[in-house]
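> Could you send the Xaa-Pro aminopeptidase prediction when you get a chance?

Sure thing. Input:
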Amino acid sequence: MYNLPKEEFAARRKRVLERIGPDGVAVIFGEPERIRSNDTDFKYRAGSDVLYLSGFVEPGCVLVLAPGHADGDFIMFVRGRNPEAETWTGRRQGTEGAIANFGADHAHDVETLWSELPNYLRARKTLYWSIAEDPEFDRSILKVIKELRATRRKAPEAPLEFADIRDIVHEMRLYKTPAELELMRHAAKITSEAHVLAMRTAKPGMMEYELQAAIEGHFLRNGAEGVAYNSIVGSGDNATILHYTENRDQMKASDVVLIDAGCEYHFYAADITRSFPVSGRFEGAAKDVYEAVLEAQIEGVASVRKGLAYDELQTKTVRRLTQAMIDLGALKGSLDQHIEEESFRAYYPHNVGHWLGIDVHDVGSYFGADRAYRALEPGMVLTIEPGLYFPAHDTTIPEALRGIGVRIEDDVLVTEGDPEVLTAECPKSVADIETLMNS
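Output:
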């Protein structure tokens, strides 16, 4: 269980119960363990919706929310206690722990899921689950529905309607509570410190993976579960690859190194990108590109305000970065023409940011009920991460630009007033980075 009070989870489940109503039932499937190779599993990480509603971290858990059921509103299916298995793979909560430590009203061994689940679906009008997320679960739950509908001489017992539980839970996850924000601030602090360590450590001749090791070691030394996503440490032309994760090349003094790395602390993610010269000094085209991205990023952060339509962030960033491409000589022609034709995407192919929370690319729709981009509201957390990427193989751009990639990313909380930059401790001005690297 991660570091949130039981009352926080109970309040979340109560909201879901109210939304599905007395005629509804929700089934939330946890993630199974996955084989990495032969008899070795990937390190397990519980499904985010299971974490959000229960805090339960063991594999294969299934949650059932059944308002007014005789067994209670909240039922858990978990792995049973097994002394021999626990000797090999660690202690289990079992059904007793699910009740005592995670607030379940009733708990079953997950091995009995498909025999017990029909008891919670009978006579319910609407069944909620994550439709089409896992084909195996879809097949199994539809088999249960088919069997419930096959009782010809009795009143129909199967739910008559299906709905997606993610429409409810993911909208809730978009708005962070004070307790969640404290965890996110701490994740941001650890991650900021790790990026500062990388800046202090970087030297010409080092390998990219040495910086990765320094960053991820700092995460673990400070209580994070590990990385929130695969760390990106790209120097030189590698920085122009958006999701470069090989991290195997040697860094040269002439390189800009782009590091996109964040820790997961009590299952909440931080997400920071910083770009800096391996030499410790911004010079020439690299400095010009960096300052152009920095101006766009600062403007983007300042624009994060209650009521601003989400797409306005991208519109502002595109205009500023496209003008920078023209000023740098990467594009020729008029600003409006390049925006209309989207030719800017050759050097800025992604959006300005994304929601952040339990998942690094967190859930929640970017659109409102009217299908228009939704307005920002207090409690939302998003990243602001403009970038410019000039691949070495692009002979249409000035030679000085080739092989330079710059992205700058911060995590920002929407408030009633000024935005709160959760990652403000991580330096990003030219002067601050140079001072840090040369002190």
